[in-house]
Amino acid sequence: MTAQFTQRMRTGLTLLELLVVIAIVALLAAMMAPALCTIMRHVRSAACRSNLHQIGLGHHIYSSRHDGHTIPTVSYHRQWWTTSLVPFIGSRSVLFCPEATTGQTPVRGRLIIGGRHTTWCDNRQYPSDPLDRGSYGQNMWLNSYDTSIQNWGHQKAYHFGGFTSRVPGPNRVPMVGECHWVGGYPYHWDLPWDVEWDGFQLGGHQLNRFTMNRHQGCANLLFLDGNVRPVPLSDMWQLVWNKHYVPQVVTLPWVEGG
Questions:
Q1: In this structure, are strands 174-178 and 183-184 parallel, antiparallel, or unpaired?
Q2: 151-189 as b/e: b if 16+ CB within 10 A
Q3: pLDDT digit string, tens, across residues 135-146
Q4: Where are the beta strands (DSSP E) in the chain?
Q5: Nearest to 256 by CA among 225, 193, 214, 206
Q6: Which residue range(s) make up the domain with 153?
Q7: What CA–CA distance (Å, rounded) separates 178 from 115?
Q8: What ranges in the chain are assigned the alpha helix state H?
Q9: Domain total for the chain?
């Protein structure tokens, strides 16, 4: 018996046995692939929330050094909030969600709108060096009302006024989140789209800019109190985006877990 076993070990696996082993390995890999994919999505979502925590810390440092003011969407130096924030976060890499790190090649003089998996870029309205890019956007209602640098015709009464300490219920007021563009002015009457929206809305319905399915039916948001959490996309309408916002209940038939 020992001699037969030794001889079998020397000859190794037969072709049939090898094929069986390969088939089992392939089956196990196929069974594990969806779980691994889900795990990696959770990892990227956690990294995104970490980015937003750092962005929130940068906003806090900025505010403490500027008499309680929030970072304006556009500064008096004519630069977007992202460029104003960089000195307080150390690196522009924090401005990119791991699910949206690619995009068209930035070109001077061009404005590029981001998407679910792509970044936005602007070097047309407020040129900066390096070119201003990111995949997060600011709740622009937090600004003070100053038509000399921003506001683009939006109502003064809806602005929070540019001071973090003057905003009631900061745990329900978004500061920065996943976004197609550098920011937006959401109203409670903004209509949700019936299909997943992947474009640019210059006028109304700007809440859709923040409603992108990057994290399995959710988008990560940084709130004014410093908290970061994933928000189901349909719940975006139930937050408080401006001074006179009325939470709404909506349904988004296109939302999936992917």
A1: unpaired
A2: beebeeebbbbbebeebeebebbbbbbbbbbbbbbbbbe
A3: 999 999 999 888
A4: 111-112, 120-122, 132-134, 136-139, 174-178, 183-184, 218-223, 228-232
A5: 214
A6: 16-238
A7: 10
A8: 2-11, 15-65, 81-89
A9: 1
What 3-state DSSP class applies to 218? strand
9 belongs to a structural domain: no
Strand partners, 232: 218
**102 bridge partner residues:** 118
87 located within any domain: yes
The pTM for the full model equals 0.83
Is residue 144 domain-resident?
A: yes
* 89-118 CB burial, b ≥16 within 10 A, e <16: beebebbbbbbbeebeebeeeeebbbbbeb
Which residues in 56-78 are b (16+ Cβ under 10 Å) and which e?
bebbeebbeeeeebbbbbbeeee
> Which among 222, 221, 245, 219 has a CA at the least distance from the CA of 232?
219
For 54-106, the pLDDT digits (tens) are 999 999 999 999 999 999 999 888 889 999 999 999 889 999 999 997 776 77
| Cis bond upstream, residue 98 (ω within 30) | no
201 exposure class (CB count in 10 Å sphere: 0-12, 13-18, 19+)? middle
Give Cα 13 distance to the centre of its chain: 52
For 120-149, b/e burial (b = at least 16 CB within 10 A) is bbbbeebebeebbbbbbbbbbbbbbeeeee
Residue 243 lies in a domain: no
CA separation for the pair 108, 193 (Å, rounded): 32
What are residue 22's phi and psi, to 5 degrees? -60, -40
Residue with tokens 């009325």: 246
